[in-house]
Amino acid sequence: MKATWEKIDKNIVSIDVEVEAEKVAVALDQAFKKVVQKVNVPGFRKGKVPRGMFESRFGIESLYQDAIDILLPDAYSDAVKEHNLEPVDRPEIDVEQFAKGESFKFKAKVIVKPEVTLGDYKGLEVEAVQTEVTEEEIAAELERLQQRHAELSVIEEGPAQNGDITIIDFDGYVDGEAFEGGAGERYSLELGSNSFIPGFEEQVVGMQIGDFKDVEVTFPESYHAEHLAGKPAVFKVKLHEIKRKSLPTLDDEFAKDVSEFDTLEEYKADLVSKLKERKEKEGETARDGVIIEKAAAAAEVEIPEPMIVAETDYMIKDFESRLKMQGMNMDLYFQFSGQNETVLREQMRSDAEKRVRNNLVLEAIAKAEGIEITDEDVVAEFETLSKAYNRPAEELREIFVQNGNMNSLKEDITLRKTIKFLVENSKTV
To answer: What pTM, to 2 d.p., does this model score?
Structure first.
């Protein structure tokens, strides 16, 4: 096989491929064996029609497309590998010659991974990671724990207060007309949670059991349902129940109930340690993100549309998987959010483009700096995964090999090593 290529536009190459006549003959034989199984010729069972009779009756040309389908995938793949090209989309194929006794010639036009012109990526300035834990952060964490372990008591009389959990009926109207999704019965609403339209919960505060009230609000201009965005609405509300939280006292008994420690001071010390560790990890993640963004901003690269589409597809599938883990699906999400897949894709497009750009720049830096992974890196990665999933490292390796995910794993390790390189060569300010 012969293959040559040339760049015909930004990120687009044209590949000329010629496959030997001998391989064409083999492909025609394979095509005949496949096609003859489906042919009905009087006097012959299926699959038993002689080759000569088949060609005289149907013509050798009737085998060409099947033979092309047999030859083309491997020929195209071999040409791409021979010239180290990295296609990011399906090729456009133009068959220029195919006939019995002749070579097979075709031209493939395909979009390839773009070239990256790197800018400055060493000595990038980033802020130092802050790990100091403030008294306010400790107090906020303790309050969250109190809220989590709070006891609910039913309030028989008196007005609803901020923080109470109320059970309400509501009917919403815009321009005097009820609208879809604007009604609910015995709905549990925590006042102050900001889960309803701005201004709604504040007007429920002060209501008592059995009260009726018209709650007047205005939908935000950015509301997901365009037909309601910015419009005033009236909700007719009835209050059925009030439940009030009783927070536990912050003392040694509380510490014993929520942890393995005997005193509150011991528990707070452990809490400070964990908060510091969390802030350190979050700070490192944020720092890495800043470094990557700065390196990407300094580089020049034109991203092909198929790469953005492919990354958006991946993000959509990942989002759908996370919804399923929460007991939802895409149809329910679209129903609740008032969106559709087109809107969701548009929202994700910017992040998808940023991800692609960042990864391309990191790959280019790894190549420029000769950053490669070793067998030891792979072994260490599976040891880490083994601890995380509590499964033998060799078993996990076999799963990755069987599913064809080893290359992705190695690419991920390379990207992390590249980010580490950028961090080690940055300046802390």
So the answer is: 0.72
